[in-house]
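From the thread on structure requests for the teaching lab: each student submitted one protein with a one-line request. Submission from student K.M.:

"Model DUF202 domain-containing protein from Dyella jiangningensis, tokens only."
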Amino acid sequence: MIPHFSDHAANERTYLAWVRTAISVMAFGFLLERFDIFLLFTSRAATRVTENLHTRASQWLGLGLLLVGALMIAGATLRYYRNHKAIEAEASSTYGDTWTARAMAALLVILAIFLTLYVARQVAALS
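Reply posted by the TA:
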């Protein structure tokens, strides 16, 4: 019998959920980084000339999301091992959120706001 098995299994499930989320963020970042191809295709297919399209921002935002996804995996790994040690320790310890998790969440909110404004501006330029 493995001591504290249910705690370790919950810790591992949480870690895997973080990794899945990070992979999704990175995949969205890759898609967004290639968003410029879609914009160039639609601007060429448009009946009128669109000069207000700025595709460089989608590349930087996509790269930013790739970086955030990599940082999420690194943070989740550190958190997994910290919780693993806390589960194995005989002494009780406090469980709290870290500043890195809050910083990544804030960064994702800022990126989401920027993405919303960016896409709205590109749609307005195409119409």
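TA comment: The mean pLDDT is 82. The CA atoms of residues 40 and 47 lie 13 Å apart.
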